[in-house]
């Protein structure tokens, strides 16, 4: 009986402590729970932000570290840019019946490619920076994924090596071929760039269905290098656009953006109402949202007019 009372008192104390944190600091309680559930060891939960973890993203085993901003979102929300992932998934399902080719330009540690490997016939991932490629390759191998091909170079409008400015450990997604793109980036030698059309021919990429592109200010050059492929395949593209009137390499107007795509392409913006936690996305016209005269970043959807009816404005389709 005494042992029972001691156990009951312990459980009551634990319950009251949890209730206190739930009422006064729910976020801290949630973080503690997720850390204990997903960190590679309990001891890691006491090492501040330097926490290794493993999480399941739609059946894919993803390995991350909380120092990295992208991984931080994956840890706490179950994915990075979940609304973008769901949009890519829905487009591939609706338009290509999960039999299309997914192109990931600026793959980084590979979250988008890993996720889309379950909804595409084949995935081609382009990423020039070896430190993130190392982890990406390991996750492809550990998940026994057979339809992802990794190409260890960037895409642009010519074939050359160019200075690359690596990101800080706090956000592995900001590395760029544009020196002034991020003040925390630092020079990391020269990395390979290939003209997109040439790369697709060399790698035997015979169809292009959906493209995701996130290359930190280098989008104009990548689009110029893909001109033939865009005209031939007329893919749907989801990409981050950085506008900066002070940058000589940024896209300066909607007219310039439109000219980088084939005829009869239209554009939507992934609205700020889109929900990172649930994956709900909402698309709105580009006019009045993207201000090319300001330094801004937006996630855009570019699509051929003949595909408009296949793209859902509100989503996702769960």
Secondary structure elements and their pairing?
Layout (H helix, E strand, L loop, with lengths): L1 H23 L1 H13 L13 E6 L2 E6 L3 H9 L4 H15 L4 E5 L5 H6 L5 E5 L3 H13 L5 E4 L2 E3 L3 E7 L19 E10 H7 L7 E4 L5 H7 L1 H7 L2 E8 L10 H6 L5 E6 L10 E5 L10 E9 L9 E2 L3
Parallel strand pairs: 3-4, 3-9, 4-5, 6-8, 9-10
Antiparallel strand pairs: 1-2, 7-8, 10-13, 11-12, 11-13, 12-14
Write up this protein.
The protein is of the alpha/beta class and 318 residues long. The chain has 2 domains: 2-74, no CATH class; 81-315, Rossmann fold (3-Layer(aba) Sandwich). 33% of the residues lie in helices and 25% in strands. It is built from 10 helices and 14 strands. It has helices at residues 2-24, 26-38, 69-77, 82-96, 111-116, 130-142, 196-202, 219-225, 227-233, 254-259, and strands spanning 52-57, 60-65, 101-105, 122-126, 148-151, 154-156, 160-166, 186-195, 210-213, 236-243, 265-270, 281-285, 296-304, 314-315. The strands form 3 sheets. The protein has a 9-stranded mixed sheet with strand order 5-4-3-9-10-13-11-12-14. A 3-stranded mixed sheet has the order 6-8-7. Helix 6 (130-142) links the parallel strand 4 (122-126) and strand 5 (148-151). The mean pLDDT is 88.
Protein traits:
318 residues; alpha/beta; Rossmann fold; 2 domains; 9-stranded mixed beta sheet; 3-stranded mixed beta sheet; 10 helices; 14 strands; 33% helix; 25% strand
